Amino acid sequence: MRATIHVSAAVVVSDDARTLVVRKRGARVFQQPGGKPDPGEDALAAVVREVAEETGIVAAPGDFVPLGRFTDAAANEPGHEVVADAFLLRVGPAEATASGEIEELRWLTEDDVPDTPLANLSRNHLIRFAWR
After folding, report:
1. Which end of the chain, C or N, has fewer beta carbons within 10 A?
2. For residue 73, what is the domain's CATH number?
3. For the chain, what is the domain count?
4. Residue 78: band (very low, low, confident or very high) from pLDDT cuts 50, 70, 90
5. What span is annotated as the signal peptide, if there is one (predicted)?
């Protein structure tokens, strides 16, 4: 059995139908903003904090819509699986800034997805929620 990593992740969608993905320092693939909850922190509190830390987008907990829990092979930890509590966050004219452990961020259209290197969890489960 593979080791499990629990995270919270946000599918951030701008009002012009683009979705935000981030690439962590040292990673080769992009994924939704998010990360591991701190001790005692629930999934919603973690995603609110992580989105603000990684992108500078500050949103209230009530702005996040739960999407469910998804599991796939971890992108940056070989031999691990990631279990993500995922949320949808719609934002207006979006401005984001890569900060903390984020080396690069991109706003993607649906047409950009096939040519963008994405983590398994993003490609197989989360990215589709941006255009529903």
Report:
1. N
2. 3.90.79.10
3. 1
4. confident
5. none
